[in-house]
Structures are given as structure tokens and as C-alpha cells.
């Protein structure tokens, strides 16, 4: 089984979530009446396709002027660089050519010419994209390199700290030969110079002792960087929350407890709510905060939903339907919707990923494995 099949295909299944009832260990304060949170809720007023971003990635992905650049990926985090350029952060990524019929060659590991990396960047400059990878044009490698053939990194959210780009990654490891013989191992943060994004200048461990993958999303607010995570049990996914004073993730972490306080001990991190995806976001909208996520309370759910709070620490209530992804059908599914509040759009820009349970679908149709973008308005 190739690395492509051992990484991309199981990830597709792992990120979906199955039907699950709320766990009795959810934080007690989260289950109390939340009239204050409801007062900050705003109705979803409208949702449209973001035509600019959709065409930007479609045209770039189909362009064969270079053959070591992006033709599809998932993850799709973003960060505004000090230069004003937009950094797009991806996990599993295809590089190479697109055929006239909209197909791509198989990956190199299967005898084709398409390069498959577990992470990459793209930088948007003046409405144009360019791919960032390490290695060479003839032999590209990931910007966050694995330690060996049995480990790889998928990206989480990113932040800017005193001009340094900090990107979170979750390391996964393979422990056998079966399709499901892999698991989350640890969280790290890689620091990059904005002008030299091909490889990190340093990599640092993040809290990893209690099976929470940090950071599904991040938010800077009130002098803190809030770091949202997920405890993924397959059939249930739980939100966890930490914070760091200031901008850098290298500071001292505090974890939200079941009593609604903060503790320096990761073991005190509480399950805040269920139904979130592996990637989600919390953004400031008006006087409140909106949580955007795929709804994982139902298996293979095509629905993107929003919750609201008056605080970045929740509770998040007032669940509203945002969008039903039209791509979901047969082998095709969607996952990991989250917002990009720093990206210009007609409302809050939200992306989601599209994938297939059948690997060869990614060869026959390059449009499957590319992000979609929405503009969501509230009020």
C-alpha cells in the first residue's frame, strides 16, 4: 500500500464523524441555559459562492505553466502576512499537470508523474497564486518534513507572532500495514520567516498529553490567542479550548476546565461540546462570536452549521443551518468547513473540502480535491 493510499484515503474516512449522543462528561457550565449567548446570535442572512476565490483556485490548479505546483489539496487554512499577501496552508497536496480532459496522472508512487505531499503552502499576491514547497522543482518535498517514512504532518491553523509565521501541525504515525493502522501522535508548531516559507526555522512541541489535536482553529482576542482543539473518538468529536497570553504559541498555555475556569494543566481540559469537525473556526462577528463547522452529529453530513456566543470561550448555542454542500453524492463527501475572517469577501468567507472514498476519482476529475468557498452574511 503506497503512502498516498495510506494517508489520504483513511483521512477521508476519519474526518467525517458518525452519529453520536452528547457525552455525560461534557462541561457542566456548557449545558446550562445560555441566554447571554443567545443575545449575541445573529441569523444567517444569506450564503453565496465566492466567485473570486473559486475561480482563483480553479484557474491556478488547471494551469500547466509549471509542473511542480498545486493542482489540489485539503486543509485550507489562511493567514495574512505582514506584506499584506495571503498565505494558504494546505495538508495533503497534489502537484503536477492537469490533462485537457480534467484528469491528472497517478501519483509517482503508483507509476505516474503527480507528486503527493502531506503539506504545502500557496501565497496569493495581487490575485495570483504561487506554490511553496521544499526540495526542488524536479523533486518537491513538504514544507514540514516528516521524521521518517512512517510519520507525516497535517496542518492546523496558523498565526503571526512578532512577524514570524507560526503554523500548527499534527503528527500522525503508521504502526502496521493495514489501511487503518495509523494514529494521531502529537502536536507541534513550526515557525517560518515570511520571506522563506520553504522550510521552518524551528519546530517546537505543543501540549499533546491528553489526545487533543490542537489547533482546529485559532482566534486572537483581548490580549490572548485562543486555541481550539478536537478530541476525536471517531463516533464523537469534542471541542476543547486553550489560550496563550499574547501572540505566540510558545507562551504558557491555559486550558478551559469543566467549571469554566482556566488551568495550566492540560489534564483539566474539558469537553465543551460535541458535533464539531476536526477543523472548525471561531470568528468575531459583530458583538459576538460565531463557530463555523461541519455538523458531525450525523454520519456523512453535508451540512455546515453555525453556533453563537458572547465570549470566545463559549458556551456556543443557537445552532443554525448555514449551507448544504451540493457535491455530496455517491463516493463524494465534504468536510472541515471553517472561516477566513481576514480574507476579503461579501460577508464571512468560509471554505470547505471535497474528497472521495475512491482514490482513482482524484485522477479522473481534478476538481474533486479542491476547496470550495462561500460568502456568509449575518444580521
TrEMBL record:
Q: Name the domain of life.
A: Bacteria
Keywords assigned: Signal
Where is the secretion signal located?
1-27
Q: What's the name of the protein?
A: DUF4185 domain-containing protein
Origin organism lineage: Bacteria, Bacillati, Actinomycetota, Actinomycetes, Streptosporangiales
